[in-house]
Amino acid sequence: MQDFGEAFGLAFTLVLSGDADLFEIVALSLRVSLSATALACIIGLPLGALLAVTRFRGRGAVLILSNALMGLPPVVVGLIVYLHLSRAGPLGFLGLLYTPAAMIIAQTILITPIVMALSRQVIEDLHGEYADQFRSLVLGRWQMVQALIWDARFSLLTVGLAGFGRAVAEVGAVMIVGGNIDHLTRVMTTAIALETSKGDLALALALGLVLMVIALGVNALVQSLRMTAVRHAYA
């Protein structure tokens, strides 16, 4: 076990020196989380928008379910994906288990309900303002969805960033389906857990520092986009 002061010093050295192993882990984390966020937005934004503008029997139950899915336990998602991608599973022939692709699938399942539920709320509020105008123009459902998504683009970017923040901090699901294999599936969160258990605090702290910088950067960008959305609304 390293001395805390020494560990912090080594951590800053690793970050500032551009350590190859450190930034390989960071690059994989960003690639996996950004890919999952993009897929979640492709799936979740249209579904959220469609749910916002559509009224049907049982809609209340669907809303409750979509909100409940935001709290999906990551280890349960990881287990379900593992069972499907294992050799005995229905998708085992694809050979995706313990690959970055499996991690992307798990993160996509985790954050799609978040993107869907948050975008539904944003677009439903906006739809209430434009409902009379849409009726006067006799727009179809998908035309309304497209118009609302475009008008709410700044707010929806914050939804995407919220999804990315959730994905990049995920550890349970990606550990199960990725296996934390060095130079293949080791991402920041799983590496922090492993290196801490091994007593290598320097690398764990260095990765923690990078993860904190990313989290702060995402939050700062969210706030900036919110202010942009407000200025756009009153322009």
TrEMBL record:
GO terms for biological process: transmembrane transport. Pfam families: BPD_transp_1. It comes from the Bacteria. This is ABC transporter permease subunit. GO terms for cellular component: plasma membrane. It is found in: Cell membrane. Its main location: membrane. Belongs to the binding-protein-dependent transport system permease family. Gene3D superfamilies: MetI-like. Keywords: Membrane, Transmembrane, Transmembrane helix, Transport. Residues 26-222 form the ABC transmembrane type-1 domain. InterPro entries: ABC_perm_TupB-like (IPR049783), MetI-like (IPR000515), MetI-like_sf (IPR035906). NCBIfam families: ABC_perm1. The chain crosses the membrane at residues 32-53, 60-85, 97-118, 154-181, 201-222.
